[in-house]
Design a protein that fits this description.
Elements: E1 3-9, E2 13-20, E3 23-31, E4 41-50, E5 55-59, E6 66-69, H1 80-84, H2 102-105, E7 111-118, E8 127-129, E9 134-135, E10 139-142, E11 148-150, H3 157-170, E12 176-179, H4 188-211, E13 216-219, H5 224-232, E14 239-242, H6 245-258, E15 266-268, H7 275-278, H8 281-287, E16 292-294, E17 300-305, E18 310-315, H9 325-347, E19 351-356, H10 363-377, E20 384-389, E21 394-399, H11 406-410
Parallel strand pairs: 1-14, 11-12, 14-15, 18-19
Antiparallel strand pairs: 1-2, 2-3, 4-5, 4-7, 4-13, 5-6, 7-8, 9-10, 10-12, 16-17, 17-18, 19-21, 20-21
Helix pairs in contact: 9-10
Length: 417
Amino acid sequence: MTTELIIGVRPYEKRVALVENGIVTELYVERTSEQGLLGNIYKGRVIKVLPGMEAAFVDIGLDRAAFLHVSDVYEEVKELEALLNVTESEEKLPAHIHAPLIQELLHEGQEVLVQVSKEPMGGKGARITSYISIPGRHLVFLPRVNQVGVSRRIESEGERKRLKDMVSSIKPQEYGFIVRTASEGADQKKIKTEMDFLLKLWDNIQTKNSKVSAPALVYKELDTTLRAVRDLFTQEVNKLIIDSKEEYQKILEFIDTFMPGLEHSVELYEGQEPLFDAYGIEMELARALGKKVWLRSGGYIVIEMTEGFTAIDVNTGRYVGKRDLEETILKTNLEATKEIAYQLRLRNIGGIIVIDFIDMEKECDREKVLRALRKALKKDKSKTHVLQMSELGLVEMTRRRTRESLNQILCEPCFYC
């Protein structure tokens, strides 16, 4: 399989596309004027405690106060199993089973060190957490946990044990780490070098935190380009292509420091045609903003995004099948599961999602479709949870949302509508 990471840089935005065998599987866009906050660490001040909501509002220096739920307020975490089952994209620790009252943990005027876990969306402020996590190439550093977890995407039990034992033996006792997928096959020297870097970074954060007054930014996450290199430029990626000389040099310096040996896979694009046009990504981007998506069989799905949830409707369209109606419906629904999983990932749709599959009379057919959907979603790095199918053929699911969708970034509401 050929996999390419394409990064297009414009004065007003940066675009990142992961292309597998000519198909765009992940697409990220960040406006220069609206740089993301996800992963930033702030020294904030509690401005309001709401016992009825089990939450507090914290001033971190943004236009709107950030939201801090009681389950995101740091206490000693003792749930090892929760750590062992995370993926590298799930950098937020689990909520406590028996969470204390918010008023027992926080009071107005209190200063807290917090990290943005969800971007501001719509009229809502950012969601923040006290479970600080600092991702590197091979490790996610957890300064407030003293345990080690391994990404479940590393499937070999032998490799999982090797990595866990290695990290456990060299880490400071009071800190924790999640071993990321990129660590598979890595030696101790490489892991230790990154661990030392993350520990030094945490020391710098603590030093700055002790010197500044709230509200203040104490750590800024990597920009779009370097974040894409860190998180997406894996061993499976054959080539990274970028069209900016300045960003190209930044990438080479970053790789030389953190990912030596991959410099030969980075290419500066200097063609006359715009990079995203040359690779057919611009056309895919336009399709990713449309409501109707055609299936190869002739059926189609309709994606409707509302403020509260996303509705996806499956239709047979032009597909009439070869034998009977039940077979036609089953084939359309099965094909739709793959396309839905793909579109959720491509469009970065999160939150509550309701899928209206075409009605199926047989229970075995419903189970086939549900299994197919769950299987298709396994490729997704964002955490998903799929409920059982209802009698009406509706499937409710959730997908972890940390950033705005492509539609929210690139589109504006129509004044007349």
